[in-house]
């Protein structure tokens, strides 16, 4: 996933971002037009292109799953990270870190198996699984990012007369932002991949053609879904990389 | 004006600062000095309440500092620390502007103030304004740190070993600049250091602390000539006491009339040669041995003195060039007098 963002100059990474975004949009809109290609590749298949739902619809559903779960992960994760780095919440730090780690060690499929009987099929259990799964990198990086603020900077901020909330808003968060965004980036990329399994419990996503392909022994469906998920992940990664660069100061 | 009354800080059952009382008048340069762990930094940080005092009072002007909200108090007090503590995500201008910003000054006034301070510290605003701290040299960053502390025109400036982390050469320059800025602004300064030479150079009053207690609070010259006890004596260091005294003596105090006549050669063993504007070109003679009397010494930046130079430095220059006399120049480079080895030895240093 990170191959594209290896140490190349920013300008060439931006060109890559544009090129891959265009490719993604074209594939989402015009996958059917590739039918002849898939027919030649897989002559034994009757339907070489997935047509039950449009790829545009599947992509939007997929993005909605990622967006909702990431919003929850980020707000809960950053909130928890902030809480345990304040004086009042410091003793909860090991507990919160452990809980977030457990959330990630649980396989998403296992979470689905637990949540489906409680919340039913579809959107909700998938969101729960993705949220839990994406929480750890956000919590970890929030704690780590706030930890990178040197104590002398904090002392200077206090010494010149900033209030606690001014120190948080104007010094700690801006200085930790790059690391926090790196955590959100990992969380979102993981969730773009993991959202495919939502298809197994009826949450429509780009996983739907993949599951259909696996069940129906149609390798072309699997490729179509997987390529789009992969592209989506790379494009998001490059977007986050740009965002991170914005919070790198004066380099 | 700052007054500490019976100031005490207790950690566990140990007093880090024990019943310290002293008063630093407006415009004075007070230095807190002592060995590591003597409580000098703790004392400083109790003044702006980064550390709460266990007992005692601190008066800032007429206000008891504990009666003021901590943030408001700190905005009235400039604070500069060793590691500078510049905000790495803000430009130089934004760093300097932070306290005026907290005090909600209008934007135009803040911008003016930033330019004014950058000029005061010889920081090139055009070049450095938008630089980030990690792009600055150590000396530049330290200047920005002090400029930030002065930004909102505080009544008092607290400095906690601000020059501890810069190289000796830069430290000298920064000390000179701080003295110049102090003369210019007449701020009350409380300065913490463990370096006696730094204290002697900067202070108008020195408070020597040991194990949390104030041992002696005096003018530098008193500290050197009338140490209160053996601890003070040993802390000052006996080995170079004479030189330390001379570091509190200035060339203008020892300056004598310089004769520009050939006749003086026979009398004093040396004579000055000057150009039409009165700038000295060289010295004939002035050496210890009579046979060296024909020797010429060129006057230049290294071999000359200014009235504001310390006698320690002037003496050092005489020793280095092995000449018994040093020309004193005004800021146009004209010869206005001389200091001599005889003059140094002839005057009581403690006077």
Explain what you see.
The complex is a heterodimer of chains A (251) and B (351). Chain A has a single domain, classed as MetI-like fold. Chain A is 74% helix and 0% strand. Chain A is built from ten helices and no strands. Chain A is flat, with a radius of gyration of 21 Å. With 351 residues, chain B is α/β, with parallel strands linked by helices. Chain B is 36% helix and 25% strand. In chain B, strands 6-7-8-3-9-10 form a six-stranded mixed β-sheet, with helices on both faces. In chain B, helix 5 packs across helix 7. The two termini of chain B are 28 Å apart.
Label the overall shape of chain A.
flat
Report how far apart the termini of chain B are.
28 Å
Radius of gyration of chain A, taken over Cα atoms and rounded to an integer in Å: 21 Å
Indicate the percent of residues in helices of chain A.
Answer: over 70%
Reported for the largest beta sheet of chain A, the result is: none
What is the CATH superfamily label of chain A? Answer: MetI-like
CATH class of chain A: Mainly Alpha
Overall 3D form of chain B: globular
Classify the beta-strand content of chain B into a percent band.
15-25%
The total beta strand count of chain B reads 15
What CATH calls the topology of chain A is MetI-like fold
State the helix count of chain B: 16
Q: Profile the largest sheet of chain B.
A: 6 strands, mixed
> What's the helix-strand series of chain A?
HHHHHHHHHH
Mean pLDDT of chain A: 87
Continuous helix count of chain A: 10
